[in-house]
Here is the input.
Amino acid sequence: MEDILGKDDTQFLPPDVVTALRAIDRTVMRTGRSQIFEEQIPENGEIRTFLSTKDPYVDAQGNIAGIIGIARDITDRKQAEEQIQKAAKRLAALQEIDRSILRLESPAEITQAAISRLLQVVEAEQAAVLLFNFERGEFEILAGEIGGDRVGTVRQIADSVSPEVLLNREAVWYIQDLAMLVQRSAFGEKLLAAGYHSFLAVALMIAGKFTGDLLLVKRKPNAFSAEDREIVHEVANQLAIAIQQSQLRDQLQRYATELEHRVAERTAELEVINRELEAFTYSVSHDLRAPLRTIQGFAQALLEDSGDQLDELGKNYIHSIIEDSMQMSGLIADLLAYSRLSRTQINPQLVDLNKAIKEALKQVATEVQEKQANITIAELLPSVLAHRATLIQVLVNLLSNALKFVELGTQARVNIYTKEEQHDRQTWVKLYVEDNGIGIAPEHQERIFRVFERLHGAETYPGTGIGLAIVRKGLERMGGDAGVESQLGHASRFWIALPKVLTQQRMTTRLLLIDDNKSDRTLVLRELQREFSQLDVQEIISSGEFNLAIVAGEFDAVITDFQLRWATGLDVLQASDILSRNA
Here is the structure.
């Protein structure tokens, strides 16, 4: 205190500070109002910050006689505030890099954003991210700018620095002043020539390998503090993670694309093989039927015409030929049916289960009569979305299966009913065909839906081993499912699942039938009505009716005779836009 008593502030303050203080003093004396301000004053080799207040001193007469000044050292507080601001910027920079990584941006975008953020926290004239390829002896600037080189620049490592020096250096390489180095690399010489003295390089370690650098340079020597180096190190670690994730993502994408390509190729090959196999099966099965009918016919004729000339052994031989040929005929029919399922175009329509089951029962009427079976059907079964002919074939096979696998001497009982289930906002109808048969062990319940899979000998329970395969294949083609619930010795419940059609839904197919021959139209309509339960057919017999029809509305399908009295069917279609409207 004694050191400053009686002294003027000009005696211990720098001239520029004294000038500023004098200006504040004059303002206080002139206005009579207090002034609060910050001032920075050198003290013991460092700059201290003071919060000063200057108030006017008024005498007894109310005149401003002088100034009272109070100064408080707030250097520690200011430094703490600066640290908080710097920490906030540091945190914001790291968070922005994290967000870039989460957004799955490219390495170039992430590193450019990181450098922009980093330069808001750590002062530097230039910054860049370099990626090294030691196999090719190259480095590429991924983001930023350094020594006049910009993004995308590729240079030889050896032209800038020795690869051995690069690989053997510390992870954080800090040169306080390039001018003080006795030996400098070509890169160091280039930076120094451009006026840069402080140099900081932090390694990017990816999967334990040194693959890049985050570089910062500044003209002022010794420009990067320990805290700056720590921040740059944190950013470099984040960038290494981001680059590694991006590389892994690109690699995964390449693998996925390659796998998709291979799957597509393999699928195309399998489709060709399947088509060839189906065509072969159909051709062989179809061609076998003619000689088989001949065998059956001649064997039957031999028995009828010459049976009295044969002994019992000969007659047994002929009966075996007839029975085996009939079994083979059934096998061929089932093979054709299974092959046809793969080729048939499936257009699901509204199908009334009551009518479909009635039609299926007609086809197994002989078996029902032979077995004296008791068939119970629930009332008012719902309508489903299905292909009518395929669904009837499936029901026939399930009914035949239920009638067949019953203990000898036991009356067959079959119970048919439905339940409804909700899946993915869709109501599904499960139709159950429940028998009182011999049951199926759980380990065999998937096998029985495969082609030619039999659990019993043909002598005990005759059949081809294809019936349930047709059931599964048919449901797959219609977008449904099939299965069984059973235990050995405790009967079976076979089920099929198809989407339910609400009664208010319209499932009508609009068809344009063009034919000037009435008999032909009658035959075509008969077949169509057997196939589709909801059909709106408009018959066309003249060019005038055709022109009116195509103007009046659109149709889901068109059937035309190839040769009409007034044109060819192809000419009629090409003369209108009906093909494009129904494409």
